[in-house]
Amino acid sequence: REAAVQQVPLPAAPTAAPAAPGAPTTAPAKIDVSPFTDPKDRVTAEGALRDDFVKLSGRFITVRDFYDRMQTATDSGPGDITRIFSFMKMLDPETGVREREYATAENASGVPEAIRNMYNKLLLGDKLSLEARRQITAEAKQVWTSAAARQSALTNQFAGIAKRQGLRSQNVIVDLTAGGGADIPPPPTGFNRVGR
Does this model's pTM top 0.70? Predict the structure, then answer.
């Protein structure tokens, strides 16, 4: 015959005394789950990851800058040179052609031949037709949209890396879309970074 098991009631969890009327309430403390015990180590890690992010954003920065130049190009011979040169740099940021220098297969190999020929004719005094300007502008917008989508994916990737490493993404991700970087908070008081 089995012995009867007697259930013993557990003591109730202690409850905090109610706050006195008019007493200030305190928010729960924010717990830092970062693996970094020294703020200097976190700032160093954030800086290194930010450097990687900016380096991998180099192509996007080039596309952004030359797309901006295209938007301000005038409808004139010099403006057309700027427009087509900027478009060539968007298509191939590594192209070796310099502005007002003839584009060849050697110095602009990543640029379609038709665009190189158009650019070279502009250097000789030609102008783009209104339709050609419209087409180039539309193509440039597509290149920009594609580059912006790739940059967005890169941003999300680095934000995820920062989170998994216990870093603050706002100190890693730099807003490169509008031509200027986001403000980066200063390092902790008393910490001087050398070589940055």
Answer: no
Quote the tokens at residue 195. Answer: 């070589």
Whose CA is closest to 99, among 112, 86, 90? 86
Look-up: residue for tokens 């050609």? 132
List phi, psi (to 5°) of 136. Answer: -65, -40
DSSP class per residue in 97-123: PPTTS---TTT-TTS-HHHHHHHHHHH
Q: Is 137 exposed, middle or buried (0-12, 13-18, 19+ CB in 10 A)?
A: middle
Collapsed DSSP state (helix, strand, coil) of residue 101: coil
Give 20-51 as a DSSP string. Answer: PTTPPP-PPPPP---S-SSHHHHHHHHHHHHH
Is the pLDDT at 50 greater than 90, yes or no? yes
Report pLDDT digits (tens) over 79-122.
999 999 999 899 988 877 777 777 776 677 778 888 888 988 99
Token pair of 122 as six digits: 């502009």
pLDDT band at 44 (very low <50, low <70, confident <90, very high): very high
